[in-house]
Amino acid sequence: MKSDMEELMPRLLPVDLGENTGEFSVTGPPRNPQEYLRQVHLEASLCPDVVVAEIDPKKLKKKQTVNVSVAGCPAAPVGFSPSLSWQQQQVCNFSDMRQRITKNRIHWRNQTLDENVTMPKVTDEDGWRRFCLGETVHLETSSCHTEAETGPGIDYNKVGFPPFLTIVSRLNQTTVLTVLEILIGWFEEHAFVPQLGLWMYSLLACLEKPLLPEAHSSIRQLARRCAQLRSTLESEMDETLPALNLLICLVARYFEQNDLADQPEDESQD
Protein backbone atom coordinates (compact mmCIF):
# COMPACT_ATOMS: atom_id res chain seq x y z
CA MET A 1 0.00 0.00 0.00
CA LYS A 2 1.29 3.43 -0.87
CA SER A 3 1.83 5.95 1.91
CA ASP A 4 -0.14 9.17 2.07
CA MET A 5 2.97 11.04 0.99
CA GLU A 6 3.33 8.86 -2.10
CA GLU A 7 -0.32 9.49 -2.98
CA LEU A 8 0.24 13.24 -2.81
CA MET A 9 3.65 13.16 -4.49
CA PRO A 10 3.79 10.42 -7.14
CA ARG A 11 7.22 9.28 -8.27
CA LEU A 12 8.60 10.91 -11.36
CA LEU A 13 11.09 8.05 -11.88
CA PRO A 14 9.52 4.64 -11.04
CA VAL A 15 12.12 2.31 -9.53
CA ASP A 16 12.08 -1.41 -10.29
CA LEU A 17 13.48 -3.07 -7.15
CA GLY A 18 13.68 -6.44 -8.90
CA GLU A 19 14.10 -9.85 -7.26
CA ASN A 20 17.84 -9.76 -6.46
CA THR A 21 17.64 -7.21 -3.67
CA GLY A 22 20.00 -9.27 -1.54
CA GLU A 23 22.91 -8.46 -3.83
CA PHE A 24 22.20 -4.73 -3.58
CA SER A 25 24.79 -2.79 -1.51
CA VAL A 26 23.66 0.41 0.16
CA THR A 27 27.14 1.55 1.14
CA GLY A 28 28.98 0.73 -2.05
CA PRO A 29 28.96 2.85 -5.19
CA PRO A 30 26.12 2.10 -7.63
CA ARG A 31 27.11 -0.15 -10.50
CA ASN A 32 24.38 1.01 -12.87
CA PRO A 33 21.55 3.58 -13.12
CA GLN A 34 19.06 1.15 -11.57
CA GLU A 35 21.17 0.76 -8.42
CA TYR A 36 21.64 4.52 -8.18
CA LEU A 37 17.88 5.08 -8.27
CA ARG A 38 17.35 2.31 -5.76
CA GLN A 39 19.85 3.95 -3.37
CA VAL A 40 18.07 7.27 -3.70
CA HIS A 41 14.72 5.59 -3.11
CA LEU A 42 16.01 3.82 -0.01
CA GLU A 43 17.50 7.02 1.44
CA ALA A 44 14.24 8.85 0.85
CA SER A 45 12.24 6.09 2.56
CA LEU A 46 14.36 6.48 5.68
CA CYS A 47 13.60 10.20 5.96
CA PRO A 48 10.59 11.20 8.09
CA ASP A 49 7.65 12.76 6.28
CA VAL A 50 7.77 15.83 8.56
CA VAL A 51 10.92 17.35 10.02
CA VAL A 52 10.78 19.78 12.92
CA ALA A 53 13.83 21.99 13.42
CA GLU A 54 15.10 22.36 16.94
CA ILE A 55 15.93 26.05 17.47
CA ASP A 56 17.68 27.46 20.48
CA PRO A 57 15.90 30.77 21.26
CA LYS A 58 19.06 32.09 22.87
CA LYS A 59 20.87 31.96 19.55
CA LEU A 60 18.27 34.00 17.70
CA LYS A 61 19.37 37.50 16.84
CA LYS A 62 17.32 40.43 17.88
CA LYS A 63 14.56 41.04 15.38
CA GLN A 64 15.38 43.89 13.05
CA THR A 65 12.77 46.45 12.21
CA VAL A 66 12.69 49.12 9.52
CA ASN A 67 10.88 52.34 10.23
CA VAL A 68 9.40 53.89 7.11
CA SER A 69 7.84 57.29 7.46
CA VAL A 70 4.65 57.68 5.45
CA ALA A 71 3.59 60.98 6.98
CA GLY A 72 2.36 63.64 4.62
CA CYS A 73 3.31 67.29 4.45
CA PRO A 74 2.01 69.89 6.89
CA ALA A 75 -0.82 71.80 5.26
CA ALA A 76 0.11 75.18 3.88
CA PRO A 77 -1.05 78.20 5.87
CA VAL A 78 -4.00 80.05 4.38
CA GLY A 79 -2.84 82.04 1.37
CA PHE A 80 0.48 80.16 1.01
CA SER A 81 -0.74 77.29 -1.18
CA PRO A 82 -0.21 77.64 -4.96
CA SER A 83 -3.08 77.31 -7.40
CA LEU A 84 -3.62 74.11 -9.32
CA SER A 85 -2.93 75.86 -12.64
CA TRP A 86 0.41 77.11 -11.28
CA GLN A 87 1.36 73.60 -10.20
CA GLN A 88 0.41 72.15 -13.57
CA GLN A 89 2.49 74.76 -15.38
CA GLN A 90 5.53 74.02 -13.21
CA VAL A 91 5.23 70.31 -13.92
CA CYS A 92 5.04 71.05 -17.65
CA ASN A 93 8.12 73.28 -17.53
CA PHE A 94 10.01 70.72 -15.48
CA SER A 95 9.15 67.93 -17.91
CA ASP A 96 10.45 70.02 -20.81
CA MET A 97 13.67 70.69 -18.91
CA ARG A 98 14.21 66.99 -18.25
CA GLN A 99 13.75 66.20 -21.94
CA ARG A 100 16.28 68.84 -22.97
CA ILE A 101 18.84 67.56 -20.48
CA THR A 102 18.37 63.97 -21.68
CA LYS A 103 18.59 64.97 -25.33
CA ASN A 104 21.77 67.02 -24.92
CA ARG A 105 23.46 65.06 -22.13
CA ILE A 106 26.18 63.57 -24.35
CA HIS A 107 26.94 66.97 -25.88
CA TRP A 108 27.36 68.72 -22.53
CA ARG A 109 29.23 65.80 -20.98
CA ASN A 110 31.89 66.10 -23.69
CA GLN A 111 32.46 69.79 -23.04
CA THR A 112 35.64 70.70 -21.17
CA LEU A 113 35.19 71.90 -17.61
CA ASP A 114 36.79 75.15 -16.53
CA GLU A 115 40.13 74.80 -14.80
CA ASN A 116 38.68 75.94 -11.46
CA VAL A 117 36.08 73.14 -11.43
CA THR A 118 37.21 70.16 -9.39
CA MET A 119 34.31 67.82 -8.71
CA PRO A 120 34.46 65.93 -5.40
CA LYS A 121 34.54 62.16 -5.14
CA VAL A 122 31.17 60.50 -4.77
CA THR A 123 31.68 59.68 -1.10
CA ASP A 124 33.08 63.09 -0.10
CA GLU A 125 30.05 64.54 1.71
CA ASP A 126 31.85 67.62 3.01
CA GLY A 127 33.32 68.22 -0.44
CA TRP A 128 29.89 68.16 -2.09
CA ARG A 129 28.44 70.57 0.48
CA ARG A 130 31.29 72.98 -0.21
CA PHE A 131 31.04 72.46 -3.96
CA CYS A 132 27.29 73.05 -4.22
CA LEU A 133 26.67 75.56 -1.44
CA GLY A 134 30.03 77.28 -1.16
CA GLU A 135 32.15 78.02 1.87
CA THR A 136 30.03 81.05 2.72
CA VAL A 137 26.99 78.90 3.43
CA HIS A 138 28.70 75.69 4.46
CA LEU A 139 30.97 77.36 7.00
CA GLU A 140 28.33 79.96 7.91
CA THR A 141 30.78 82.85 7.68
CA SER A 142 29.93 86.37 6.58
CA SER A 143 33.48 87.48 5.74
CA CYS A 144 33.73 85.11 2.78
CA HIS A 145 30.46 86.46 1.39
CA THR A 146 31.76 90.03 1.48
CA GLU A 147 35.03 89.14 -0.23
CA ALA A 148 33.19 87.24 -2.96
CA GLU A 149 30.99 90.24 -3.74
CA THR A 150 33.72 92.87 -3.75
CA GLY A 151 36.35 90.83 -5.62
CA PRO A 152 37.10 91.20 -9.36
CA GLY A 153 35.15 88.03 -10.22
CA ILE A 154 32.97 85.35 -8.76
CA ASP A 155 34.78 82.96 -6.45
CA TYR A 156 32.72 79.80 -6.82
CA ASN A 157 34.63 78.14 -4.01
CA LYS A 158 33.02 80.67 -1.68
CA VAL A 159 29.55 81.03 -3.19
CA GLY A 160 29.20 77.51 -4.60
CA PHE A 161 29.29 76.21 -8.14
CA PRO A 162 25.94 76.52 -9.93
CA PRO A 163 24.59 73.28 -11.45
CA PHE A 164 25.94 74.00 -14.91
CA LEU A 165 24.90 71.52 -17.60
CA THR A 166 28.56 70.65 -18.11
CA ILE A 167 28.59 69.51 -14.47
CA VAL A 168 25.23 67.76 -13.95
CA SER A 169 25.53 65.94 -17.30
CA ARG A 170 28.57 64.16 -15.90
CA LEU A 171 26.71 62.76 -12.90
CA ASN A 172 25.52 59.17 -13.10
CA GLN A 173 22.45 58.05 -11.18
CA THR A 174 24.45 56.90 -8.18
CA THR A 175 26.09 60.31 -7.87
CA VAL A 176 22.83 62.17 -8.47
CA LEU A 177 21.14 60.30 -5.64
CA THR A 178 24.15 60.59 -3.35
CA VAL A 179 24.44 64.36 -3.77
CA LEU A 180 20.68 64.70 -3.39
CA GLU A 181 20.80 62.86 -0.07
CA ILE A 182 23.79 64.91 1.13
CA LEU A 183 22.08 68.23 0.42
CA ILE A 184 18.75 67.11 1.88
CA GLY A 185 20.60 66.05 5.01
CA TRP A 186 22.13 69.52 5.24
CA PHE A 187 18.73 71.13 4.62
CA GLU A 188 17.22 69.25 7.55
CA GLU A 189 19.34 71.31 9.91
CA HIS A 190 19.63 74.63 8.07
CA ALA A 191 17.52 77.31 6.46
CA PHE A 192 16.76 77.43 2.76
CA VAL A 193 19.31 79.19 0.55
CA PRO A 194 19.14 79.95 -3.21
CA GLN A 195 22.10 77.68 -4.00
CA LEU A 196 20.25 74.76 -2.47
CA GLY A 197 17.15 75.46 -4.55
CA LEU A 198 19.14 75.51 -7.79
CA TRP A 199 20.80 72.20 -7.02
CA MET A 200 17.61 70.52 -5.83
CA TYR A 201 15.82 71.47 -9.05
CA SER A 202 18.73 70.30 -11.22
CA LEU A 203 19.23 67.01 -9.39
CA LEU A 204 15.52 66.24 -9.57
CA ALA A 205 15.68 67.00 -13.29
CA CYS A 206 18.42 64.35 -13.63
CA LEU A 207 16.68 61.76 -11.46
CA GLU A 208 15.51 58.86 -13.59
CA LYS A 209 12.11 57.21 -13.33
CA PRO A 210 10.98 54.78 -12.07
CA LEU A 211 12.45 55.84 -8.77
CA LEU A 212 14.66 53.61 -6.70
CA PRO A 213 13.45 53.09 -3.11
CA GLU A 214 16.25 55.32 -1.82
CA ALA A 215 15.24 58.12 -4.17
CA HIS A 216 11.60 57.71 -3.23
CA SER A 217 12.43 58.19 0.45
CA SER A 218 14.77 61.12 -0.17
CA ILE A 219 12.43 63.25 -2.26
CA ARG A 220 9.60 62.72 0.23
CA GLN A 221 11.95 63.89 2.95
CA LEU A 222 12.71 66.96 0.85
CA ALA A 223 9.03 67.81 0.35
CA ARG A 224 8.24 67.40 4.03
CA ARG A 225 11.14 69.64 5.02
CA CYS A 226 9.98 72.31 2.54
CA ALA A 227 6.43 72.14 3.92
CA GLN A 228 7.66 72.30 7.50
CA LEU A 229 9.77 75.36 6.75
CA ARG A 230 6.90 76.98 4.82
CA SER A 231 4.64 76.63 7.85
CA THR A 232 7.02 78.89 9.79
CA LEU A 233 6.99 81.75 7.29
CA GLU A 234 5.38 84.94 8.51
CA SER A 235 4.43 86.49 5.19
CA GLU A 236 3.17 85.42 1.79
CA MET A 237 5.76 87.80 0.35
CA ASP A 238 8.68 85.82 1.78
CA GLU A 239 11.15 85.31 -1.06
CA THR A 240 11.64 81.63 -0.23
CA LEU A 241 7.94 80.74 -0.59
CA PRO A 242 7.90 80.22 -4.40
CA ALA A 243 10.95 77.95 -4.24
CA LEU A 244 9.51 75.87 -1.41
CA ASN A 245 6.18 75.53 -3.23
CA LEU A 246 7.99 74.54 -6.41
CA LEU A 247 9.96 71.71 -4.80
CA ILE A 248 6.85 70.37 -3.05
CA CYS A 249 4.96 70.56 -6.33
CA LEU A 250 7.58 68.63 -8.31
CA VAL A 251 7.92 65.88 -5.73
CA ALA A 252 4.16 65.48 -5.37
CA ARG A 253 2.88 66.14 -8.88
CA TYR A 254 5.68 65.03 -11.21
CA PHE A 255 7.10 62.16 -9.16
CA GLU A 256 3.55 61.12 -8.20
CA GLN A 257 3.81 61.40 -4.43
CA ASN A 258 0.21 62.52 -4.48
CA ASP A 259 -0.38 62.40 -0.75
CA LEU A 260 2.15 65.24 -0.39
CA ALA A 261 0.50 67.50 -2.95
CA ASP A 262 -0.82 70.96 -2.06
CA GLN A 263 -4.56 71.15 -2.48
CA PRO A 264 -5.66 74.52 -3.84
CA GLU A 265 -7.69 76.41 -1.26
CA ASP A 266 -10.72 76.81 -3.51
CA GLU A 267 -10.86 73.00 -4.00
CA SER A 268 -10.42 72.18 -0.33
CA GLN A 269 -13.48 74.25 0.51
CA ASP A 270 -15.76 72.39 -1.91
UniProtKB/TrEMBL annotation:
Superkingdom in the source lineage: Eukaryota
Pfam families attached to this UniProt entry: SIP1
The keyword Transmembrane appears for this protein: no
Gene Ontology cellular-component annotations: Gemini of Cajal bodies; SMN complex; spliceosomal complex
Main localization (coarse): cytoplasm
Matches recorded under InterPro entries: GEMIN2 (IPR017364), Gemin2/Brr1 (IPR035426)
Biological process annotations from GO: spliceosomal complex assembly; spliceosomal snRNP assembly
Secretion signal, residue range per the UniProt entry: none
Keywords: Cytoplasm, mRNA processing, mRNA splicing, Nucleus
Subcellular location: Cytoplasm; Nucleus, Gem
Family designation: Belongs to the gemin-2 family.
Function, in words: The SMN complex catalyzes the assembly of small nuclear ribonucleoproteins (snRNPs), the building blocks of the spliceosome, and thereby plays an important role in the splicing of cellular pre-mRNAs.
Self-association and partners: Part of the core SMN complex.
Protein name (Swiss-Prot/TrEMBL): Gem-associated protein 2
Organism classification: Eukaryota, Metazoa, Chordata, Craniata, Vertebrata
